[in-house]
Amino acid sequence: MSMLAVIGSGLAVGGGLALANRWQWWRVPKPADWPRLLMYHSIAPEAPTGMNTPPDVFAAQLAWLQAQGYRFHTVSELLHNPGPKAVALTFDDGFANNYEHAFPILREHGAKATVYLAPEIPEIDRLTPAQIAEMQASGLIEFGAHSVHHVNLSKLDSDAARAEIAGSKAAVEALTGLPCTAFAYPFGRFSEETAALVREAGFSSAVTTKKSIIPQPSAQPYTIPRISTHGEMDMAQFRVAFSRGRYRF
């Protein structure tokens, strides 16, 4: 075999491996009756990124889920009695555009979701108390907590981490007038100690950024994985991620 042929063969193999890694098609699809949790952040008509999903992309994903017979739950509902083909839509941080752009789409599809609020997160346009009240009154939205200032809890000492966790619970309950039992680790960072502090604060669940699908989230309620999304995902990539638990964009 000539040197050019060897190089060409190597490039073909390398390209095939790169494509397989990008699409994750080689992973075994998880059973459809295993619950899924999808992770979003910003929903806005801006450039698609790992943090922002354009509204039309989000709407297409919900329409596909509905067409496949999936039923939308809050995270708390998903843990208790999800039934078959259950999915929980989750939104981290509490962007105001979750009200402006995601909420109308959720209402159109009758889709429930859980929004994790970091009440004093800096540098984003946050949901207002009036927006939170309207979303909650719809019966579609569960509000969880995401620390007070959106900090890496694993880098804090116990007292500071406890204050961030318990403080966010109290702040969300003051905003909603309801018990807050769902938590999301900022940046997905946690340790055994922070998970214990979340449990100690009175939360019944906590989600991570670990990319996976598991058969029974209630079996590990303080380390629940999710399927991450990306604003540039096309529907083929979304279906691969949804069936297998992850993609590599």
From TrEMBL:
<feature type="domain" description="NodB homology">
    <location>
        <begin position="85"/>
        <end position="249"/>
    </location>
</feature>
<dbReference type="Pfam" id="PF01522">
    <property type="entry name" value="Polysacc_deac_1"/>
</dbReference>
<protein>
    <submittedName>
        <fullName>Polysaccharide deacetylase</fullName>
    </submittedName>
</protein>
<dbReference type="InterPro" id="IPR002509">
    <property type="entry name" value="NODB_dom"/>
</dbReference>
<keyword id="KW-0732">Signal</keyword>
<dbReference type="InterPro" id="IPR051398">
    <property type="entry name" value="Polysacch_Deacetylase"/>
</dbReference>
<dbReference type="GO" id="GO:0005975">
    <property type="term" value="P:carbohydrate metabolic process"/>
</dbReference>
<dbReference type="GO" id="GO:0016810">
    <property type="term" value="F:hydrolase activity, acting on carbon-nitrogen (but not peptide) bonds"/>
</dbReference>
<dbReference type="InterPro" id="IPR011330">
    <property type="entry name" value="Glyco_hydro/deAcase_b/a-brl"/>
</dbReference>
<dbReference type="GO" id="GO:0005576">
    <property type="term" value="C:extracellular region"/>
</dbReference>
